[in-house]
Protein backbone atom coordinates (compact mmCIF):
# COMPACT_ATOMS: atom_id res chain seq x y z
CA UNK A 1 0.00 0.00 0.00
CA UNK A 2 1.46 3.33 -1.09
CA UNK A 3 0.75 6.14 1.38
CA UNK A 4 2.25 8.90 -0.71
CA UNK A 5 0.61 12.11 0.48
CA UNK A 6 1.14 15.28 -1.48
CA UNK A 7 -0.36 18.70 -0.86
CA UNK A 8 -0.12 21.86 -2.89
CA UNK A 9 2.11 24.44 -1.19
CA UNK A 10 -0.48 27.20 -1.61
CA UNK A 11 -3.17 25.05 0.01
CA UNK A 12 -0.82 24.28 2.88
CA UNK A 13 -0.06 27.97 3.47
CA UNK A 14 -3.75 28.87 3.31
CA UNK A 15 -4.63 26.10 5.77
CA UNK A 16 -1.94 27.16 8.21
CA UNK A 17 -3.07 30.78 7.82
CA UNK A 18 -6.63 29.79 8.73
CA UNK A 19 -5.38 28.01 11.85
CA UNK A 20 -3.25 31.05 12.71
CA UNK A 21 -6.24 33.35 12.27
CA UNK A 22 -8.25 31.18 14.65
CA UNK A 23 -5.46 31.30 17.21
CA UNK A 24 -5.20 35.07 16.81
CA UNK A 25 -8.90 35.40 17.66
CA UNK A 26 -8.27 33.69 20.99
CA UNK A 27 -6.67 37.01 21.91
CA UNK A 28 -10.22 38.37 22.28
CA UNK A 29 -10.82 36.26 25.39
CA UNK A 30 -8.26 38.08 27.55
CA UNK A 31 -9.58 41.61 27.03
CA UNK A 32 -13.14 40.44 27.66
CA UNK A 33 -12.23 38.90 30.99
CA UNK A 34 -10.01 41.84 31.93
CA UNK A 35 -12.64 44.46 31.10
CA UNK A 36 -15.28 42.60 33.07
CA UNK A 37 -12.95 42.37 36.05
CA UNK A 38 -12.06 46.07 35.77
CA UNK A 39 -15.72 47.11 35.54
CA UNK A 40 -16.56 45.04 38.60
CA UNK A 41 -13.72 46.51 40.63
CA UNK A 42 -14.57 50.01 39.41
CA UNK A 43 -18.18 49.63 40.52
CA UNK A 44 -16.97 48.26 43.84
CA UNK A 45 -14.63 51.25 44.32
CA UNK A 46 -17.40 53.74 43.49
CA UNK A 47 -19.64 51.95 45.99
CA UNK A 48 -17.01 52.38 48.72
CA UNK A 49 -16.10 55.99 47.88
CA UNK A 50 -18.82 57.73 45.84
CA UNK A 51 -16.96 61.05 46.01
CA UNK A 52 -14.11 59.58 43.91
CA UNK A 53 -16.45 58.44 41.13
CA UNK A 54 -14.99 60.59 38.35
CA UNK A 55 -11.40 59.51 39.06
CA UNK A 56 -12.32 55.83 39.31
CA UNK A 57 -14.44 55.86 36.16
CA UNK A 58 -11.84 57.71 34.06
CA UNK A 59 -9.07 55.36 35.21
CA UNK A 60 -11.26 52.32 34.53
CA UNK A 61 -12.14 53.53 31.03
CA UNK A 62 -8.49 54.18 30.21
CA UNK A 63 -7.58 50.68 31.37
CA UNK A 64 -10.41 49.16 29.32
CA UNK A 65 -9.26 51.05 26.23
CA UNK A 66 -5.74 49.69 26.61
CA UNK A 67 -7.08 46.17 27.13
CA UNK A 68 -9.35 46.44 24.09
CA UNK A 69 -6.40 47.33 21.87
CA UNK A 70 -5.07 43.79 22.42
CA UNK A 71 -8.27 42.31 21.05
CA UNK A 72 -8.23 44.69 18.09
CA UNK A 73 -4.64 43.71 17.27
CA UNK A 74 -5.68 40.05 17.27
CA UNK A 75 -8.59 40.85 14.94
CA UNK A 76 -6.32 42.76 12.55
CA UNK A 77 -3.83 39.88 12.43
CA UNK A 78 -6.63 37.40 11.76
CA UNK A 79 -8.08 39.53 8.95
CA UNK A 80 -4.67 39.96 7.34
CA UNK A 81 -4.04 36.22 7.46
CA UNK A 82 -7.43 35.45 5.94
CA UNK A 83 -7.87 38.13 3.29
CA UNK A 84 -4.55 39.84 2.52
CA UNK A 85 -2.22 36.94 3.11
CA UNK A 86 1.34 38.07 2.33
CA UNK A 87 2.67 34.51 2.65
CA UNK A 88 0.92 33.32 -0.52
CA UNK A 89 2.78 35.92 -2.57
CA UNK A 90 6.10 34.51 -1.39
CA UNK A 91 5.32 31.08 -2.87
CA UNK A 92 5.64 32.25 -6.46
CA UNK A 93 9.18 33.53 -5.98
Compact description:
By secondary structure, the protein is mainly α. The chain has a domain at 28-84: F1F0 ATP synthase subunit C (F1FO ATP Synthase, Up-down Bundle), CATH 1.20.20.10.
- Under CATH at level 1, the class of one domain stands as Mainly Alpha
Q: What would you call the structural class?
A: mainly alpha
Q: CATH architecture of one domain, please? A: Up-down Bundle
What series of H and E elements makes up the topology? HHHH
H/I helix tally? 4
Helix content: over 70%
Low-pLDDT residue intervals, each spanning 5 or more residues: none
β-strand amount: under 5%
Q: Which topology of one domain does CATH recognise?
A: F1FO ATP Synthase
CATH superfamily of one domain: F1F0 ATP synthase subunit C
**The biggest beta sheet, please?**
none
Q: Tell me the distance between the termini.
A: 35 Å
List strands and helices in order, with pairings.
Blueprint (H helix, E strand, L loop, with lengths): L8 H17 L3 H20 L4 H31 L2 H6 L2
Helix pairs in contact: 1-3, 2-3
Textual characterization of the structure:
With 93 residues, this protein is mainly α. The protein has a domain of 57 residues: F1FO ATP Synthase, CATH 1.20.20.10. It has four helices and no strands. Helix 1 runs antiparallel to helix 3 and helix 2 runs antiparallel to helix 3. The longest helix is centred in the last third of the chain and has 31 residues. It is rod-shaped, with a radius of gyration of 22 Å.
Amino acid sequence: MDNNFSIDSQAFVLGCSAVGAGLAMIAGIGPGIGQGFAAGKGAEAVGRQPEARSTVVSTMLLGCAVAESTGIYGLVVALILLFANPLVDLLGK
